[in-house]
Amino acid sequence: MNAEFKPDQSRWRFSVAPMMDWTDRHCRFFHRILSRHALLYTEMVTANAVIHGDRERLLGFDTAEHPVALQLGGADADALAEAARIGEAYGYDEINLNCGCPSDRVQGGQFGACLMAVPDQVARAVAAMKAAVAVPVTVKCRIGIDDQDPEASLDAFADAVAAAGADALIVHARKAWLQGLSPRENREIPPLDYDRVFRLKARLPHVPIAINGGIGSLADAQSLLAGRHGVRLDGVMLGRAAYQSPALLREVDPVLFDATPPVAGLAEALEAFIPYLEARLAEGVRLSAMTRHILGLFQAVPGARQFRRHLSVEAVKPGADARVLREALDLVINRPTGCEMAA
């Protein structure tokens, strides 16, 4: 395990979950404007795509995104080790193995949540990745799949990957059902079992363990970090809540890291985003590919609906540029007060 890890100083204290079609490089850049300390994750990229595909398109990111982790999908130890080497060479701060995605496409490749059934295979992959890179190698998993007993299955899985050298486990506190539920339903229908994750931490006190699933606010995150039954976890990972209400990220640094927010308010965050937008526009990226990640920024603020509508309509038009964002920002009524309310 990571010899430098210290309780309450975990690099995994707060992270934004890897989310397909959401946490691309544009999303991560904006999230980093809002929090200097949150650990950010890429969308899942398959090991074979990393090895054989367009690496700059798949792996390219802005250095401002650090700390940022690359999430890999795959089951072959050699391919995962090679992809991990490539990811480290690109500058990623961590390599994460996806053992929790239940999508049909992932199941067809026999990786993702399917790997919960074969802990020894995952352990071999983790050991190969650890041998290939110097950065932390972590695993994101569920508490079990299908008819598995979450007590026995999660213990066996965690023991195997920890023994192989995994630097941390991020546990989505739900089962995944590989048949009968869609990926979206698998994020909502199987009941949450946070206590199961705390029991795992009690068994493995020296293994950094972060919790994911259904955490809807920083208050929820604080509650989980405070611990249960005398057990404290090492981190929380937020997914949809952080994406759909990104304003909460501006509170992460002061609330969870006792640090000053990196921007004074949400309007300032958008102003800081504009130079990035303009640079990407000059490279041929469409404005809507970037502004889609900020539509939920001003929730509950007067003018928020007009802000979303203007971006949704205008950003997709040919030739749309940063003026569209400035126009949308002007539609937020009483901007300074609204920004503070939203933040």
Topology of this structure?
Layout: E1 14-16, H1 25-34, E2 39-41, E3 45-46, H2 47-52, H3 55-59, E4 68-73, H4 77-90, E5 94-99, H5 104-108, H6 119-132, E6 137-145, H7 150-163, E7 168-176, H8 183-186, H9 194-203, E8 209-212, H10 218-226, E9 235-238, H11 240-244, H12 252-257, H13 266-282, H14 287-291, H15 304-314, H16 322-330, H17 335-342
Parallel strand pairs: 1-2, 1-9, 2-4, 3-4, 4-5, 5-6, 6-7, 7-8, 8-9
Describe this structure in words.
- It is a single chain.
- This protein has 343 residues and is α/β, with parallel strands linked by helices.
- The protein has two domains: 14-249, TIM Barrel (Alpha-Beta Barrel); 266-342, Four Helix Bundle (Hemerythrin (Met), subunit A) (Up-down Bundle), CATH 1.20.120.
- The protein is built from 17 helices and nine strands.
- It has helices spanning 25-34, 47-52, 55-59, 77-90, 104-108, 119-132, 150-163, 183-186, 194-203, 218-226, 240-244, 252-257, 266-282, 287-291, 304-314, 322-330, 335-342; strands at residues 14-16, 39-41, 45-46, 68-73, 94-99, 137-145, 168-176, 209-212, 235-238.
- Strands 1-2-4-5-6-7-8-9 form an eight-stranded parallel beta barrel, surrounded by six helices.
- Helix 4 links the parallel strand 4 (68-73) and strand 5.
- The longest helix is centred in the C-terminal third of the chain and has 17 residues, at 266-282.
- It is globular.
- The chain starts with 13 loop residues before the first strand and ends with a helix.
- The model is unreliable at 1-9 and 336-343 (pLDDT under 50).
